[in-house]
Amino acid sequence: MRLPSGVFRTSVSGGFGPLAALANSSSPDVLLVPGFTGSKEDFLPLFPLLATRGYTAMALDQRGQHESEGPASADEYGLDQLGADVLAVAAQLSSPPHLVGHSLGGLVARQAALSQPDAIRSLVLLDSGPGPLVVQTQLRALVEALPQLSLAQIWAIKAGMEAELGVPAPPQDVAVFLEQRWLSTSVHSLLGMAQVLLHAPDRTDELAALVSDLPTLVMFGEADVDTWPVEVQAQMARRLGVRHVVIREAAHSPVVENPIVSADHLAGFFLEVDGTRR
User: Fold this and answer.
1) Number of domains in the chain
2) Which range marks the domain in which residue 17 is found?
3) In this structure, is residue 139 part of a structural domain?
4) Which residues pair with 221 in a beta bridge?
5) Within 13 Å of residue 29, how many CA atoms lie on the same side as its CB?
6) H/E/C letters for each residue in the chain?
């Protein structure tokens, strides 16, 4: 996929090995963590939009995702290991970053924040939930299929089902990228991260004890129904004692579905945090 002007490919050290990244600064203000089956490219629309609002960024492939190396054991993709990777990256930056985690990435970002709150400047939970994925049917079907079918076979089944349902096909270059990304993702990472989504502990109360010193925002698309329903995410924000932002005309991926509004809210939150700390 074509990168926005000023965005370059790089790599940073994680707890297991190099993590592939995209960045528009060697010393970014914002660190972006993708969700299950996602990658750093999910955040491409944000780079120019945040830059015009005064913020540089880095987006990661987590271990085993897309272009990042990963261990050959599903047991090495738990929240402890994934959170430690994020902290390892944050430690390489010149100052603590604003940390944004999408979906599974939100659980990982929360883990990092709970483990070492001083390592980050703020926390944004983007279309993420308090504990296990609420809607688990498709994920459980994938977990059952992975030991029996190749990634290519699973992709073909998925494409066929979407065609039958009349799901609009993405542009050709995007379609090619999505298939290549899926085929390059580690099966071990899929199995390990799936267990995180199925069994993650609810640590909302622990995080709530930190938010007075760690500014936190909950943000989600208004039509997010396939993961943690919006009422679950709103309730999590209330339990945390922080505000939540609902992105109109968006579902589970508001950064892609409504990037301008998403960037406005993110940059506005970052400015509030930075203003209070100056």
Assistant:
1) 1
2) 8-277
3) yes
4) 247
5) 15
6) CCCCCCCEEEEEECCCCEEEEEECCCCCCEEEECCCCCCHHHHCCHHHHHHHCCCCEEEECCCCCCCCCCCCCHHHHCHHHHHHHHHHHHHCCCCCCEEEEECHHHHHHHHHHHHCHHHCCEEEEECCCCCCCCCCHHHHHHHHHCCCCCHHHHHHHHHHHHHHHCCCCCCHHHHHHHHHHHHHCCHHHHHHHHHHHHHCCCCHHHHHCCCCCCCEEEEEECCCCCCCCHHHHHHHHHHHCCCEEEECCCCCCHHHHCHHHHHHHHHHHHHHHHHHHC
Return the structure tokens found at 221: 């698309």
Give domain status of residue 62, yes or no: yes
- The pTM assigned to this predicted structure is 0.97
Backbone φ and ψ for 99, nearest 5 degrees, come out as -110, 125
Q: What is the pLDDT of residues 135-189, one digit of tens each?
A: 999 999 999 999 999 999 999 999 999 888 888 888 999 999 999 999 999 999 9
Does 16 map to a domain? yes
How far apart are alpha carbons 30 and 12 in whole angstroms?
15
CATH of the domain at 266: 3.40.50.1820
Copy the structure tokens of residue 88.
């390892």
Residue 122 lies in a domain: yes
Kindly report, residue by residue over 110-132, the tens digit of the pLDDT: 999 999 999 999 999 999 999 99
